[in-house]
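User: I'll paste a sequence; please echo it back and then give the predicted structure.

Assistant: Echoing your sequence first, then the prediction.
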Amino acid sequence: MKNVNTLKIVAAVALALGFGSAQAATIVAGGTMGVSSTVTASCSAFSQGAGFGFAGYTNNSATNVDATTSVTATCTAGTPYTMAVSAGTHYNAAGGMGGGWRNLQNGTTLTSFLGYGIYQDAGYTTFWGSGVGGQGSLGAVASGAGTASYTLYGRIPAGQAAVVGSYTDTVVASLTY
């Protein structure tokens, strides 16, 4: 009987310590995981409006005709870029002003031109060029939201012979980054 009582005591202690019951075990394993992202530089440019709307030039006009338009550059913040304006379709055209001027072409005669310039400043002193041969491109670094608006100042100089008709040219604003 002594063996039976000892067995009862051992069984009671075993149950109390959890040896005789099923218990769930939770195992936690840990480690580190890297998280990363790469932000790449990107830029775009767009013109606001229809471009220059030169109005009121007459044959051998005694005054300059001025107009403005704007271009918005949007780049990833911190991206250095240069904005340039192309020479245009009729740059230095035979029959035009020559001497490095952009030219508007008469759409009727195709042989009549009006010279014009695009400038970086309202004083019409710094040409906005393609950056080729030292022509005034504009360098900048995108900051904050990375968006900047630039005014382009256009001028048709006075004193040019003009034939009746509509005159056009096409220029491209480009961003190099």
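The chain has one domain: 43-176. Helices lie at 2-17.
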